[in-house]
Amino acid sequence: MKKSFLKGASIFLASVLTVGMCSAYSVNAKAKFSLPKKTTLSYDKKNNGENGFYTNVIYIKGTNRSNSESILRNGMKVKSSNKKVISTKTFGKDYYLIADNNQVGIGVKLKKTGSTKITAKFKYKGKTYSVKTTVKVIKYSNPFKKIVVDGRDCTSDFKNKNGSGISFMGRNIKITPNKNWRVKSIYTYKPGATKMKRVKGSSVTIPTNCRAFITMENKKNKLTEKVTFDEMDTSEDPGFIF
């Protein structure tokens, strides 16, 4: 019996950090924070586990390595104007979401397709800030017309939404975008490096002990779907069966 590509994936939670893991840095006195005016997220009714807080994150512009710990130390209140579409939670002192570029993120839970307004309030250097965005939740669709990993067609493994915390295995990846989709970016990263390396085109051979970050973008609604691969030549691993 074949084993699905998804079940062979490893899980990583690099985007979820505790407050205590951040170091102290100098703070920019003139802080300006904002959310995108409009945000589009995808909802998958058939894979409800990927509609949760840690998969759907909206990042606050203006947050960075120097101010993220200070902002989240006092907690953040997040509200949704339409709780039937998106529900929110208050992020407190115990944990918070933070991107690889150290931006603070707001996790939201998707309940169905539709629209809502998200408002987040937080304090920084004694001043209260409020940021807002209008969120449109649409039905998930496979961004890949075809994705070949180490010579195997793995397109069907993306027929349902996969969480941003899932890392797939593979070394040689070739992508054919679906209709209205494009490969927005491909980056490779080696643990310990200070920068990621951008790869041009729609295919990548991941260097040994590295990771690849692939971002697909819908040209019509600007929705992005992200996929991560950890380097592993699955064509030579008899224990890894698709």
Q: How much helicity do the residues have?
A: under 10%
Q: Compute the average pLDDT.
A: 80
Task: Give the percentage of residues in beta strands.
Answer: 35-45%
* CATH fold-level name of the largest domain: Immunoglobulin-like
SSE order: EEEEHEEEEEEEEEEEEEEEE
Please mark out the parts with pLDDT under 50 across 5 or more consecutive residues, or reply none: 1-29, 237-242
SS content category: mainly beta
Silhouette: globular
Termini gap: 9 Å
Our count of helices gives 1
Number of strands: 20
Number of structurally distinct domains: 2
Quickly name the level 1 CATH class of the largest domain.
Mainly Beta
Please characterize this protein's 3D structure:
This protein folds into 2 domains: 14-20 and 32-139, Immunoglobulin-like (Sandwich), CATH 2.60.40; 141-236, Immunoglobulin-like (Sandwich). The longest helix has 6 residues, at 68-73. It has one helix at 68-73, and strands at 10-11, 16-17, 38-43, 57-59, 76-80, 86-87, 96-98, 104-107, 109-110, 114-124, 127-139, 144-149, 152-153, 166-170, 172-177, 181-189, 197-198, 203-205, 211-218, 224-231. The protein is 2% helix and 42% strand. It has 242 residues and is mostly beta strands. Residues 1-24 form the signal peptide.
